[in-house]
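INFO  loader      accepted 1 record
INFO  loader      residues=117
INFO  predictor   begin
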Amino acid sequence: MRNIESLKLPRNSLGDAGIEKIFQSESLRHITSIDVSGNNITEVGAKAIADESALCNLRVIDLRRNRVGDEGFELLIKMTGYPELTDLRLSHNHISEDGAKQLTMKCSLNKLKKLKI
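INFO  predictor   done
INFO  writer      dumping tokens
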């Protein structure tokens, strides 16, 4: 598994509990890209991702087609455990206009180059 850089797990019904386990897995520390789109992830899963993670080398996190909502969005744009993150994909996540406004006030993702909401 050490040679794997990208992990693609779309549409697997992982849910919040599955996401928490993945993002706490020390054996996946070397992963630089993860696709967990369409996995019924809510703000609870977003919190697990935003909290200190074992996957600190991630450059790409694909969370499209989940249910993180405004609360989860705010947690994700304030996260600090991913110093190399350049691409965060959050389209189709029930993020409202008011939620998106948080981006201008609370974003701490300094290397982010692509954000899709």
